[in-house]
Write a structure and sequence with these properties.
- Strand 9, helix 11 and strand 10 form a beta-alpha-beta unit.
- The protein folds into three domains: 244 residues, no CATH class; 127 residues, no CATH class; 91 residues.
- The strands form three sheets. Strands 1-2-3-6-7-8-9-10 form an eight-stranded parallel beta barrel, surrounded by four helices. The chain has a two-stranded antiparallel sheet with strand order 4-5. A two-stranded antiparallel ribbon has the order 11-12.
- It is built from 21 helices and twelve strands.
- The protein is of the alpha/beta class.
- The radius of gyration is 25 Å and the shape is globular.
Length: 599
């Protein structure tokens, strides 16, 4: 059955979209649940069991394989409730109309419904048509492949299949969902190999896959390598989800200066090559494993997300680059019908401007992280610092990874780690300015594995005694241009061009915005190299600059030649590109002056 909508709602943080499918899937909208926090999933499962008078048996950490079991039970519950809501919708005329009205005006389903209901009103015929044509939105899940800590029981390290990411995969694989697993944050070969053990990831003779694999990628080369890796195991990547390296929410994985438009062009030009290579490889792998060989070649979708903010941009990505669907995330943080955002955080998001949405170093993973300045987690963190108790008590321990001072890994945002580092700092004869700078580097890290889930508890009036009141949130830069709370209908009407919820008239094109962010990123990298540039830094900065320059030249050609698109802002776009090219040229001169070879 054809998908109803041309957009999906990607994962946002941990708790902001943990139950979003229950709210939107009945309208045919695909959305994604994060599988990081099994404790949060268990609390939300209990809440919904009580709400719908369903039996509930707690899965405690004393249960064997409790993490996987918590996720399986939670996903099964959400799936059951979502399917019931969808079946109920099909029996209610007002909700069927709401479903239809939300669809894009170009939807064939929408056109057919109008013809059917305008002609005459036969209840049985309409009911039959509804059952045949309306589809439920996919309840997808996201696993960060590198959030994969080892686990222990009674002091003994458990086998690798009990690692966090492995358990999350198992929890999803053993659920009754028919949907997609979105893999993000880079390649984890051991985890990918583990997925071979579950039949639901393999295609049947008709090419249907119960649990599809979606790879979140930032460039074509990564897609090609990972797609072939899976194909050699007899597993098919059903979707390559291209995400802007920096113009996105959550963790920011910068490319080496490759811009989104150029990346989309490469996918467009090489889609057939990627398709043929993967199909040839998977056939042989399935033969070697004595698995079912599909009767026809398998297909995949290419989707994109990161910074899209207008209907025109949405349509351009689909029409020009052949994108199958577009992800819209951060603006939905201002839609209470869709996401879990507490009142205090929502107010900060509504008033946030560009300067308030920044790429930070707060993540314990050591990866750049999009954040909201002065969020309540920052306030809570600073209160602890003022009390001489820098760091978190680390109640959930999902992001532990550092072994510099301990045999077992600990989190760099933990009180234990920061106390060690601060004591170490005290022994150094630093100036007051140098001390403050180093102290800030230590204490900037914050407990996002707790902070990103707390809002879901607060919104649902659940206990936060363990978590505290601090909420971390990770919107993309695009949110600066959305400045009020919205209904789901308003947001979807904006996506499809039926209304405009952006009041500002100075929002840059998504490609220009991403370029601006990359130039700021390059500026920081140059500053890091100012004291003493190494050969590797020089090589990186020059390659980065060249890739950015190539991207700018591509955009200049693109926006000069493209017809009937962005006509009202094309002159501004081309002017911005020319100005940024001049800025980049000056940065390249700086790199040359710092060059090792020039000294």
């Amino acid at each position: 059955m054809a998908k109803a909508h041309t957009f999906h709602i990607p994962v946002m943080g941990i708790g902001f979209t943990i139950d979003t499918p229950l709210k939107v899937s009945k309208f045919g909208i695909d959305s994604v649940i994060s599988l990081v926090d099994d404790m949060l999933a268990e609390k939300i499962r209990k809440m919904y069991c009580e709400k719908f008078n369903l039996p509930y048996q707690e899965i405690t950490n004393k249960n064997d394989d409790f993490r996987a079991k918590r996720f399986t039970s939670y996903l099964n519950l959400i799936n059951d409730l979502a399917e019931k809501a969808f079946e109920d919708l099909k029996t209610k005329g007002s909700e069927v109309k709401e479903y239809i009205n939300l669809l894009p005006d170009t939807s064939e389903i929408k056109k057919e419904f109008k013809v059917l209901t305008n002609k005459y009103f036969n209840v049985d015929e309409i009911s039959s048509w509804v059952n045949k044509n309306l589809s439920i939105g996919s309840i997808d899940v996201n696993i960060m492949t590198k959030v994969d800590k080892e686990n222990y029981k009674k002091g003994e390290k458990l086998p690798i299949e009990y690692n966090d990411a492995f358990a999350a995969v198992r929890g999803y694989a053993q659920s009754n969902l028919k949907s997609s697993l979105v893999l993000s944050a880079g390649m984890n070969p051991r985890l990918y190999g583990y997925m071979e053990e579950f039949e639901d990831f393999y295609p049947n003779e008709n090419g249907e896959i119960k649990k599809k694999i979606v790879l979140k990628v930032s460039d074509y080369r990564s897609a090609l390598i990972q797609g072939r890796f899976f194909a050699k195991k007899g597993l098919w990547v059903s979707e390559y989800r291209i995400e802007s390296g920096l113009n996105c929410g959550g963790h920011a994985f910068a490319t080496d200066g490759f811009l989104m438009g150029a990346i989309l062009k490469e996918f467009k030009n090489n889609k057939e090559e990627l398709h043929n290579l993967a199909n040839d490889v998977i056939k042989q792998a399935l033969i070697n494993k004595n698995k079912t060989i599909p009767k026809k070649e398998l297909e995949f979708r290419i989707t994109a997300q990161g910074g899209v903010g207008t209907h025109e941009e949405h349509e351009f990505l689909m029409d020009y680059y052949g994108i199958d669907k577009v992800g819209w995330a951060s603006p939905f943080l201002l839609v209470p019908e869709v996401s879990n955002v507490d009142a205090a955080t929502k107010e900060k998001l509504i008033s946030a401007k560009e300067k308030d949405l920044y790429v930070s170093d707060v993540s314990p993973l050591g990866v750049k992280f999009n954040s909201l300045r002065n969020n309540t987690k920052d306030i809570e963190k600073n209160e602890f610092i003022a009390e001489g108790k820098a760091g978190s008590a680390c109640p959930k321990r999902y992001l532990i990874s550092n072994k510099d001072y301990t045999e077992k890994p600990i989190c760099t945002a933990s009180r234990q780690f920061q106390k060690i580092k601060i004591n170490e700092l005290e022994t150094k004869a630093l100036s007051e300015e140098e001390y403050k700078k180093e102290f800030h580097k230590i204490t900037e890290k914050e407990c996002i594995c707790v902070g990103l889930g707390t809002a879901a508890l607060m919104v649902n009036d659940l206990d936060t005694k363990i978590e505290g009141y601090g909420v971390s949130i990770c919107p993309g830069p695009n949110l600066a241009y959305f400045s009020r709370e919205m209904s789901m209908k308003e947001m979807i009407d904006h996506i499809y061009g039926r209304t405009n919820v952006i009041s500002r008239n100075d929002r840059p094109n998504l490609f220009v915005k991403e370029l601006n962010i990359y130039l700021e990123f390059l500026k920081e990298k140059i500053q890091d190299a100012e004291k003493s540039m190494t050969v590797s830094q020089e090589k990186y900065l020059k390659a980065f600059s060249k890739n950015l320059n190539d991207g700018i030249e591509y955009y200049q050609s693109l926006f000069t030649d493209v017809k009937n698109k962005f006509d009202d802002i094309k002159a501004n776009i081309l002017n911005d590109l020319e100005n940024n090219k001049i800025i980049l040229e000056k940065m390249f001169v700086q790199i040359e002056n710092l060059s090792v070879s020039s000294k």
